[in-house]
Write a structure and sequence with these properties.
Blueprint: H1 4-18, E1 23-26, E2 46-48, H2 53-65, E3 70-73, H3 84-96, E4 106-111, H4 126-130, E5 136-138, H5 143-153, E6 160-165, H6 184-191, E7 220-223, E8 228-232, H7 236-247, E9 254-258, E10 261-263, H8 267-277, E11 280-287, H9 292-304, E12 313-317, H10 327-333, H11 337-349
Parallel strand pairs: 1-2, 1-3, 3-4, 4-6, 5-6, 8-9, 8-11, 11-12
Antiparallel strand pairs: 5-10, 7-9
Helix pairs in contact: 1-5, 7-11
Length: 352
């Protein structure tokens, strides 16, 4: 099975060949590195930009306005904050021109904790991204969804923010990408650059890759249940699924929803699940103050108050300026497996 970095790479190759993607660029995105997580290795339109995040976003806007279809990368989400005003311009262009100008651009950036990246390589960006109207925002939790969401993103006519959970980029999926070889080692031989001299290396892309697309705005039930709804995305989604599976032995039946898209998001899926279970826990690793999950809690209370058997809960990152390098500091700063298990167990036991 492909890992998430390989899945993104294959999707971008398909987009180059079939969806009109013209430029894939950012710091170390081109040869020889192909991105710090190798997600752009071997792509024919990939090129290296200067170390200038504002220049990268500005270039993407200009290319998109000129009729191109760029995919720009900010190497780590920690360094995207100094581009907020440009992201705002990209988001409001279609609206401000009454639909006369579209910006078919994708910005991809690795987010979150999980690699011991310390204070400068561990930030989340999901809540901040949802504060910028005009962008569609996606965040996969597995390689197949990463492939399908990137295919969809590269077909949009206005900006898409593609958030990559860096802790999951090396994790293999449980489902094959359509057209991916059955042999994992064969896939690596075909598309992974060798160590050492890469000057003569060329990838051999799988010939049968398909336009498998995950619709932006559609979530997915990854585990059905009847007692508690758990809504998550990105790095914490697999932890929620594992917590629900473990708690089944205690008689706790939790339904787990992978949101996949933060804007637009699948409120109908969330609503249907909460109406069934009467309890909901929202889980993510962004800081808890003005967290995107707080918006979902507010909407739950406003629209589903009389369906609830317990107050809706949010489990999120601590409101601290950064995440420390030490394992204990990182694990104390953002939700871990044990935190999720305890929160689901406690919520399931609450009675009206």
């Amino acid at each position: 099975m492909a890992n998430m970095a390989q899945a993104i790479r294959m999707a971008l190759h398909y987009a180059e060949e079939n969806l009109g993607v013209t430029d894939i660029f950012g710091e170390d995105v081109g040869a020889p590195l192909g991105g710090v997580f190798t997600a752009t290795q071997g792509l024919k339109t990939a090129w290296n930009s200067p170390l200038d995040e504002r220049g990268i976003i500005g270039m993407a806007i200009g290319l998109a306005m000129a009729g191109q279809r760029p995919v720009a990368e900010i190497q780590f989400a920690d360094y995207i904050f100094n581009t907020i005003d440009l992201l705002k311009i990209a988001g409001n262009t279609c609206w401000a021109t009454h639909g006369d100008w579209n910006l078919p651009m994708v910005v991809k950036t690795p987010v979150g904790s999980g690699i011991r990246g310390s204070i400068y390589h561990s930030h989340s960006f999901d809540a901040m991204a949802t504060h910028i109207p005009g962008w569609k925002i996606v965040i996969p939790s597995n390689p197949l969804d990463a492939y399908g969401l990137m295919i969809s993103a590269c077909q949009e006519i206005n900006p898409v923010m593609f958030l990559e959970p860096k802790a999951l980029l090396r994790i293999k999926g449980e489902e094959r990408i359509p057209g991916e070889p059955d042999d994992d080692k064969q896939l690596s031989r075909l598309i992974d650059a060798p160590l050492g001299d890469r000057s003569q290396w060329k990838p051999q892309w799988p010939a049968q890759l398909e336009a498998y697309a995950v619709p932006i705005g559609k979530g997915k039930v990854v585990r059905p249940g009847s007692q508690v709804t758990v809504v998550s995305y990105g790095r914490t989604l697999p932890l929620c699924k594992k917590a629900a599976d473990d708690l089944a032995s205690e008689g706790v039946d939790a339904e787990v929803i992978d949101l996949r898209s933060l804007w637009p998001y699948d409120w109908e899926l969330i609503r249907g699940s909460i109406e069934k279970t009467g309890r909901v826990l929202f889980v993510n690793e962004d800081t808890e103050v003005t967290n995107f999950g707080e918006h979902l809690v507010r909407r739950t209370v406003e629209e589903l108050f009389y369906k609830l058997l317990a107050p809706p809960r949010l489990l999120a990152g601590k409101f601290v300026p950064g995440i420390g390098l030490a394992d204990t500091l990182e694990m104390a700063s953002v939700p871990q497996q044990g935190d999720i298990t305890a929160a689901v167990r406690a919520l399931a036991s609450e009675q009206p």
